């Protein structure tokens, strides 16, 4: 067998971090959600802000960098509250780590998304989220997490 025997057989796992940016609006906790643009893969799906961990970067540093790039904020990254490994039908896989963010400086600025909005946690199942996020969405909406 040649050195390329495995090429295309398995896609590498992508290591990704995402933020649950939280605020209270009266008695209702809200979280910031973001909608992908029409020209992106999995277009118009909702997700939490974040992105790939670069080589040599820790998860918290990667998330702080992504939030600055995507939203223009300097965030205090809180504890990791969930970790999910999801396999997509196309054979790709993602290892997602979710961290809370309760404090940040700067005004949230939509730099890359189709839409950015605060959503009450109980309404999260009403949005068309990425498949990898669905279990977390239901746990958040039902008050099982946070």
TrEMBL record:
Organism domain of life: Bacteria
GO molecular function: 8-oxo-7,8-dihydrodeoxyguanosine triphosphate pyrophosphatase activity; 8-oxo-7,8-dihydroguanosine triphosphate pyrophosphatase activity; 8-oxo-dGDP phosphatase activity; 8-oxo-GDP phosphatase activity; metal ion binding
Sequence ranges assigned to domain Nudix hydrolase in this UniProt record: 12-142
EC number: 3.6.1.55
SUPFAM superfamilies: Nudix
InterPro entries: MutT-like, Nudix_hydrolase, NUDIX_hydrolase-like_dom_sf, NUDIX_hydrolase_CS, NUDIX_hydrolase_dom
Cofactor: Mg(2+)
Keywords: DNA damage, DNA repair, DNA replication, Hydrolase, Magnesium, Metal-binding, Mutator protein
Catalyzed reaction equations: 8-oxo-dGTP + H2O = 8-oxo-dGMP + diphosphate + H(+); 8-oxo-GTP + H2O = 8-oxo-GMP + diphosphate + H(+)
Gene Ontology BP annotations: DNA repair; DNA replication
Family to which the UniProt record says this protein belongs: Belongs to the Nudix hydrolase family.
Protein name, as recorded: 8-oxo-dGTP diphosphatase
Organism: Edaphobacter acidisoli
């Amino acid at each position: 067998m040649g050195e390329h025997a495995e090429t295309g057989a398995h896609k590498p796992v992508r290591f990704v971090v995402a933020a649950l940016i939280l605020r209270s609006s009266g008695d209702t906790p809200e979280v910031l959600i973001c909608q992908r643009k029409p020209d992106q893969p999995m277009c118009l799906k909702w997700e939490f802000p974040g992105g790939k961990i670069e080589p040599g970067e820790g998860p918290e540093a990667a998330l702080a960098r992504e939030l600055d790039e995507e939203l223009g904020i300097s965030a205090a990254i809180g504890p990791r509250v969930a970790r999910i490994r999801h396999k997509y039908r196309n054979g790709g896989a993602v290892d997602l780590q979710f961290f809370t963010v309760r404090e940040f400086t700067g005004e949230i600025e939509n730099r890359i998304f189709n839409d950015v909005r605060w959503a009450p946690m109980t309404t999260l199942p009403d949005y068309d989220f990425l498949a990898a996020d669905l279990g977390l969405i239901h746990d958040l909406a039902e008050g099982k997490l946070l």
